[in-house]
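New to this. Please check this protein:
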Amino acid sequence: MRRFLIAVLTLSALTQFVWAGPASAETRYLAYNASDRITQALTRSITLEAERGLFGAISVRRILSFSRGGSAEVRRGGPDAVRRALPAGSPETAVYAIAPEGGGRALGRALCPGSDETWMVLGRVRLARPLTVHAVGRWPDGTYRHCVELSYDWRGEWTVPPAGGVADEPNAPVAR
């Protein structure tokens, strides 16, 4: 009976732990500044709306570009051909599909003009570290091509999403 009770309690605790995972995730707003001329010309600065999971992994949900006045939803995943289109030696592996709704279509066209679909391949998103983003597009003939590499320097973390164009002001407050 004692073994049965221990097994039930352990299973109950494990179930609580597993189901509490999504509920314990937190939304974060991570700000980055462009670190080279190409990135500056395309996006200037970005803020990632990200979710930090139970074990600390950060997953991006939305990209906010206040210099261009828009945002785009992104969804994790994509075909393996996206990774194969990256330049040789690229360590970035997290593929995100840019949703065509809202500002996603404009972002896709800006990053990969002429492509039917666009994906972003990010390196591991970590606080206080630079970020590299690759844009890969699929053209009407079915080929996947690398479009551009974007480089960002860490700027900081907002406690709530910045209002309006505040994120682009040079002395804008940063939460952390």
Remarks:
- Strands lie at 26-34, 45-52, 58-65, 70-76, 94-98, 117-122, 131-138, 144-158.
- The radius of gyration is 19 Å.
- The first strand starts at residue 26 and ends at 34.
- Confidence is low (pLDDT under 50) at residues 14-23.
